[in-house]
Amino acid sequence: xxxxxxxxxxxxxxxxxxxxxxxxxxxxxxxxxxxxxxxxxxxxxxxxxxxxxxxxxxxxxxxxxxxxxxxxx
Length: 73
Description:
With 73 residues, the protein is an alpha+beta fold. It contains one helix and three strands, in the order βαββ. The longest helix is centred in the first third of the chain and has 12 residues, at 14-25. The protein starts with 5 loop residues before the first strand and ends in a 10-residue tail after the last strand.
């Protein structure tokens, strides 16, 4: 039985984080479910990237108001 893992990161700019890690790991950004219903001002509140081969973990980035020294600023 396969175990699916997701790693969650708090950051200031989820879209930028997802774009960086997608390129670095050769992942892909999945189609967001229901993106057309999200108001423009909230479209960068979260983002993710996945291993196209389904082996590596899904990376999920969520916006938080406080700073975080472990994410790209």
